[in-house]
Write a structure and sequence with these properties.
The complex is a heterodimer.
Chain A lengths: L1 H27 L1 H4 L1 E2 L1 H4 L1 E10 L7 H18 L5 E5 L3 E7 L4 H9 L4 E4 L5 E4 L3 E8 L5 E7 L1 H13 L6 E4 L2 E4 L11 E4 L5 H13 L4 E11 L1 H54 L3 E2 L1 H30 L4 H33 L2 H34 L17
Helix pairs in contact in A: 1-8, 1-11, 8-9, 8-11, 9-10, 9-11, 10-11
Chain B lengths: L11 H21 L6 H4 L1 E7 L6 H8 L9 E4 L6 E6 L4 H14 L8 E7 L1 H29 L2 H24 L6 H30 L6 H36 L4 H35 L1 H6 L1
Antiparallel strand pairs in B: 1-3, 1-4, 2-3
Classes of the chains: A alpha+beta, B alpha+beta.
C-alpha cells in the first residue's frame, strides 16, 4: 500500500511538471505559432464590395481575378504575408500587416482603378475584363512598345471596335484619367495589338504595368477601412498580456488559498488549459486579435468554474461523511451534469455568435468556443485524474486539503 | 451541513422590485438618451493622430475647415496636455482622408507617418449589417437555449432563464445608455458573452433544483428552491470572483492604453454583465421559476 502510494505521488509530480512545463513553454512562444491580428501588429484592413462593370455579370471568376490583381499590386508594395480573402459572395477582405506608411498603402489599394477603352464618341468599347495581359517590348528599331493581348471575348470586341474606328483614336482610361490614346491603324482580329509611338522606354513599361494591374474585372467600392499604427498595436499587446498574467496569478492564488491542495490541482489544470487553448488555436490557424486576447483572459476566470463546481460537490460529500476517494468520485459525477448542461447552453450562445457575425466579433467567438471546449476537457479529464492520483498517493492527508473542514474519515 | 440558509423565494419580492425599478429607469433612459452608437453602427470616419505637445484645439479646427469639418467632435487623448487627437467625422472617402492627413502634416511638420495612429472608416452599410447581426444572434441564441433547456429540464425553466437573460442584456444596455458611453462592435461581443455567462450560472442552480426535486422527501418546492440556491451560492460567488478578478485587471490595463477606448468599454461591459448576470441567476431566475411553478405546486407534490 505504501509503495503504491509512493508510485502515485511520483506519477502525480511527473505528470504535473511535464504538462505545466510543456504548456508554459508553448504559451510563452505563442508568437511562433499564432498570427497576430492587425490591431496588435499594426497595419491596414480594407473591405471591398465588388460591383459589376457595365452589363457584365459579377461571377466567382471575376472576384477571383480581382483578388489576383490586388495581390499583384500589394506585392509591389513589399508587404509580408498579406491576406486577401473573399467574404461572402461579392466582398473582398484585404489585410496588410506591419505596414508603416498607411497613406501609401491606402493609395496603392485605393488605386483599384477601372480600366476602360473608350471610343471617340465616348462609348465604352472594352473593359479591363477583356484584357488578358500587357507587356513592355521593343520593336524592330528597338523603339519602345506595349503589346496587348485580349481574351477571346475581348478579341471579338476589339475587332469590332478597330473596324468601327479605323484611323481614329481610342482612349484607354484608368478611372477617369487617360493613360494612352493610340490611333487605330489596322483592323485587329487576332486579339493582339501594339501601342506604338511611345516617347520613352520608361513610359512604355509604366503603361504596361498600369494596363496589367489596372485590368480589374470589377469595380471595387470601399466598405470599411481600418488602419492601426504599429506603436498602438504593440502597446495594446503588451498591456493585455500583462493584464492576463496578473489576472492569472491572482486567480491562481485565490484558488490555492480557498481550495488548498485541490486549488493547486485547479491551477495545474488552468495552465494546461491555456496550453490546450493555444494548441487548438494554432491548429485552427487562428489569428489572435485584441478582442481575442480579451476573450482568452476572460476565459481564465470562467475556466476555473468547472473546477469550482467539482470541488464544491466534493466538499459537500466530505461534509456528508464520505472518505476522500469516494467523495472525489461521487462529487465529480454529481458536478458533471451541471458542467455539461451549463456549458452546452454557453456553447449555443458562442456558436450563434460565430455563425451570424463577421470580423472582430467572430474572432472573439472562436476564442470563446475553444475556451469553453478546453476548460471542460481539462476539468473533466485532468482535474479528475490528478485528484484521484492525489487521493491514491495519500497526498491528501485530511479533508482540509480539499478546502473542506474536519479530519479524514 | 449547509453553510447558508437564506430565504430567497420569500424575499424575491425585493429583487423583483429592484429589477423592475432598474428596468423602468432603463426604459426612460433609452427613450431620453438613446444609445451612444459608435461608427461601427452608424458608419463614419475616425482619425487618431499624434500632433505635438500642447497643440490647441482651434488649430485642429483650422486644419479641418477647408474640408468643412470644423464642427465635428474632437477629443484630446491623454489629459489636457495630451499630444493626440481623435477626430470623429462622417464617412469620408479615401482621397479626402489622405488630404486631411496631409493637411495635418503640413501644419505640424514634425509629424511622421508613425504619428498617424489610427484611421478607421466604416460605411453605413456595414453598420446596418452589424445591427442586423446582433438582433439575429440574440434571437437565434434565445431560441436555441429555450430548446435545449426545455429538452433537458422543462419549458418553465427555459422561460425563466431566458427572461433573466434578457433582464441582464437590458440592464447592460440601460447602464450604457444612462452614462452615454459610446458602444461599438466589441460591446456586442460583451453582451453575447454575458448571455453565455449568465445562462451558465442559471443552469447550475436549475441543475440543483432538478436534482433536489428528485430527492426532496418532505420539502416543499419553495424549500427545494431555497436549498438549491443556497447550495450553489459558494460556487456562484467564487466563479464570479475569479471572473471579476481577470476582468478588473483587463479593465485597469486598458485604462492605461490610450487608444483602447472600445476595449475599455468592452471590459467595463463585461464587468457590469458578470455582476448583473450573477445577481439575476440567484435572485431572479429561480424565484421566477418558483412563481410559475407555484400554481403547479400541488400537482408536483403528488407526483
Amino acid at each position: 500500500m505504501k509503495r503504491r502510494a509512493k508510485t502515485s505521488s511520483s506519477i502525480f509530480i511527473i505528470i504535473s511538471l511535464l504538462l505545466v512545463v510543456a504548456s508554459v513553454l508553448f504559451v510563452s512562444h505563442w508568437q511562433m505559432f499564432l498570427k497576430k491580428g492587425l490591431d496588435l501588429e499594426g497595419g491596414v484592413y480594407v473591405l471591398f464590395e465588388a460591383k459589376p462593370v457595365g452589363d457584365d455579370d459579377l461571377d466567382h471568376d471575376a472576384i477571383q481575378r480581382a483578388m489576383t490583381i490586388i495581390r499583384n499590386r500589394i506585392d509591389e508594395l513589399g508587404v509580408v504575408e498579406p491576406t486577401i480573402q473573399p467574404e461572402g459572395e461579392r466582398r473582398i477582405r484585404v489585410e496588410l500587416p506591419g505596414i508603416e506608411d498607411q497613406a501609401q498603402a491606402m493609395e496603392v489599394i485605393g488605386k483599384t482603378a477601372l480600366l476602360t477603352f473608350v471610343g471617340p464618341e465616348g462609348d465604352v468599347l472594352l473593359t479591363g475584363k477583356d484584357l488578358k495581359t500587357a507587356h513592355f517590348m521593343r520593336g524592330r528599331r528597338s523603339e519602345p512598345l506595349v503589346s496587348l493581348e485580349f481574351n477571346p471575348e475581348g478579341k471579338d470586341k476589339f475587332a469590332e471596335a478597330t473596324e468601327k474606328y479605323l484611323g481614329k483614336p481610342i482612349a484607354i482610361l484608368l478611372d477617369d484619367e487617360v493613360i494612352s490614346a493610340p490611333t487605330v491603324q489596322n483592323v485587329i482580329t487576332e486579339g493582339n495589338a501594339m501601342i506604338t509611338n511611345i516617347p520613352s522606354a520608361e513610359e512604355a513599361s509604366n503603361l504596361a504595368l498600369l494596363l496589367r494591374s489596372g485590368a480589374l474585372p470589377v469595380e471595387l467600392e470601399e466598405l470599411e477601412t481600418r488602419s492601426v499604427g504599429p506603436v498602438l498595436g504593440e502597446n495594446a499587446l503588451k498591456l493585455s498580456l500583462t493584464a492576463g498574467l496578473i489576472g492569472l496569478a491572482v486567480v491562481a492564488a485565490f484558488m490555492l488559498f480557498y481550495y488548498k491542495f485541490a486549488g493547486l490541482i485547479a491551477d495545474i489544470s488552468l495552465i494546461v488549459y491555456l496550453g490546450l487553448v493555444f494548441l487548438i488555436l494554432s491548429a485552427l490557424k487562428a489569428t489572435l486579435t485584441l478582442p481575442g486576447i480579451a476573450g482568452l483572459i476572460l476565459s481564465i476566470g470562467m475556466a476555473v468554474d468547472a473546477n469550482v463546481l467539482i470541488f464544491e460537490r466534493i466538499k459537500e460529500e466530505l461534509d456528508g461523511g464520505r472518505t476522500v476517494f469516494t467523495a472525489i468520485n461521487t462529487g465529480f459525477d454529481r458536478a458533471l451534469r451541471a458542467i455539461i448542461d451549463s456549458n452546452i447552453t454557453t456553447v449555443i450562445a458562442a456558436l450563434v455568435l460565430f455563425i451570424v457575425t463577421t470580423g472582430t466579433v467572430r474572432g472573439f467567438a472562436v476564442v470563446l468556443l475553444v475556451g469553453i471546449f478546453s476548460s471542460v476537457l481539462s476539468a473533466i479529464y485532468l482535474t479528475r485524474y490528478l485528484l484521484r492520483l492525489a487521493a491514491r498517493s495519500q497526498m491528501i492527508k485530511s479533508n482540509a486539503y480539499l478546502g473542506a473542514r474536519g479530519a479524514t474519515k | 451541513m449547509r453553510k447558508f440558509n437564506f430565504r430567497f423565494v420569500e424575499r424575491s419580492r425585493f429583487a423583483f422590485i429592484l429589477s423592475g425599478l432598474a428596468l423602468l429607469i432603463g426604459i426612460i433612459s433609452l427613450f431620453v438618451n438613446g444609445l451612444n452608437l459608435g461608427i461601427d453602427f452608424t458608419g463614419g470616419t475616425i482619425l487618431h493622430l499624434r500632433l505635438a505637445e500642447e497643440f490647441r484645439m482651434e488649430e485642429v479646427r483650422e486644419v479641418l475647415t477647408p474640408f468643412e469639418l470644423q464642427g465635428v467632435p474632437l477629443q484630446r487623448v491623454g489629459g489636457s496636455k495630451g499630444s493626440e487627437v481623435i477626430v470623429k467625422a462622417p464617412h469620408l472617402n479615401e482621397l479626402t482622408r489622405r488630404e486631411i492627413i496631409s493637411a495635418f502634416r503640413e501644419h505640424w511638420t514634425e509629424m511622421t507617418s508613425e504619428d498617424v495612429l489610427q484611421v478607421d472608416n466604416v460605411g453605413a452599410v456595414v453598420g446596418k449589417e452589424l445591427t442586423r447581426e446582433v438582433y439575429l444572434a440574440l434571437l437565434i441564441a434565445a431560441i436555441g437555449m429555450i430548446l435545449y433547456i426545455t429538452l433537458r429540464f422543462e419549458f418553465k425553466f427555459a422561460l425563466s432563464a431566458i427572461i433573466a437573460l434578457f433582464h441582464d442584456v437590458f440592464i447592460m444596455l440601460a447602464i450604457f445608455s444612462l452614462f452615454k458611453i459610446e458602444i461599438n462592435a466589441p460591446f456586442i461581443a460583451a453582451i453575447l458573452t454575458i448571455v453565455g455567462y449568465s445562462i451558465n450560472d442559471t443552469i447550475v442552480i436549475f441543475d440543483r433544483i432538478r436534482e433536489n426535486l428528485k430527492y426532496r422527501r418532505k420539502r416543499t418546492v419553495k424549500e427545494v428552491v431555497n436549498d438549491s440556491i443556497n447550495e450553489s451560492l459558494v460556487r456562484c460567488i467564487n466563479t464570479s470572483l475569479t471572473t471579476l478578478i481577470v476582468l478588473i485587471s483587463l479593465f485597469v490595463a486598458f485604462n492605461f492604453f490610450v487608444g483602447g477606448m472600445d476595449l475599455k468599454v468592452f471590459a467595463l461591459a463585461l464587468l457590469v454583465g458578470v455582476m448583473v448576470g450573477t445577481y439575476s441567476s440567484i435572485f431572479i431566475a429561480s424565484p421566477l421559476w418558483h412563481l410559475w411553478g407555484a400554481a403547479g405546486d400541488a400537482k408536483q407534490k403528488v407526483t
